[in-house]
Amino acid sequence: MTGSVLVSCRDAGRTYGSGPAAVVAVHDTNCHVHAHDRIAVMGSSGSGKSTLLHLMAGLERPTSGEVVWPWCADTTDAAGPGPGARARAKGIGVIFQSPSLIPTLDIAENTGLPLVLAGENAGRAHARALAALERVGVADLAAKLPDDISGGQAQRVAAARVLAARPRLVLADEPTGRLDRTTGGHVVDVLLAAVDEIGAALVVATHDPAVAERLRTRWTMRDGRLLLGPDAGAP
């Protein structure tokens, strides 16, 4: 164990649909992530990796069990009526497989947009965006448009957009899935260095063993079931 618990899944499951057509994406799962953890969640496409990360992020609600964020006053997201994810959103950043940059905004504007939407003034948001772009090594792209940069550069910008908010926990869903091996390795280098700098925990969903080997702890998703490694610190 490396620090306080940031998120716990307690018999948390996610099912889509009902009756004979129901699909169980994540079976009742127990796990937790500590501050400063470096966890790879491995598994093939459709194994439930992304859904697990979405539950941890509060992007999806469990249909059974609960997800708990002990550091947040709004602590629990359980099946059925309950609190939303707005409060904890300030402490969790999600990097998706697709950078999803807005084509009409330059790179600095894209990076700072979540801060502006959260109520930060434009000047401070811009300064924090530039600092985050510097942190991931693409500050020279600040004035460019998304169509003018490469896929690897766009994924670094996506990381900067999350890191600008200095979250406690970064969840990265196949961040190298659309990149070649060399470019993907560079993105992982940057991401690891950046979370070390801001002191965040990191959970990466990946099907790539080369990515998983870069993280201290490795979990596996198989048919919606989480298999924890011997060093996972499962409760």
Which features would summarize this protein structure in a list?
disordered C terminus, ATP-binding, 6 helices, ABC transporter ATP-binding protein, 235 residues, alpha/beta, nucleotide-binding, AAA+_ATPase, four-stranded antiparallel β-sheet, P-loop_NTPase
Architecture overview:
Residues 7-235 form the ABC transporter domain. It comes from Streptomyces cirratus. InterPro entries: AAA+_ATPase, ABC_transporter-like_ATP-bd, ABC_transpr_LolD-like, P-loop_NTPase. One of its GO terms (molecular function) is ATP binding. The structure is a single chain. This protein has 235 residues and is of the alpha/beta class. The protein has helices spanning 49-57, 107-117, 122-135, 151-163, 181-198, 209-212; strands at residues 5-16, 23-34, 38-42, 64-68, 76-78, 92-95, 169-173, 201-206, 217-222, 225-228. It has one domain: P-loop containing nucleotide triphosphate hydrolases (Rossmann fold, 3-Layer(aba) Sandwich). It is built from 6 helices and 10 strands. Strands 6-7-8-3-9-10 form a 6-stranded mixed beta sheet, with helices on both faces. Helix 5 (181-198) links the parallel strand 7 (169-173) and strand 8. The chain is globular and about 50 Å long.
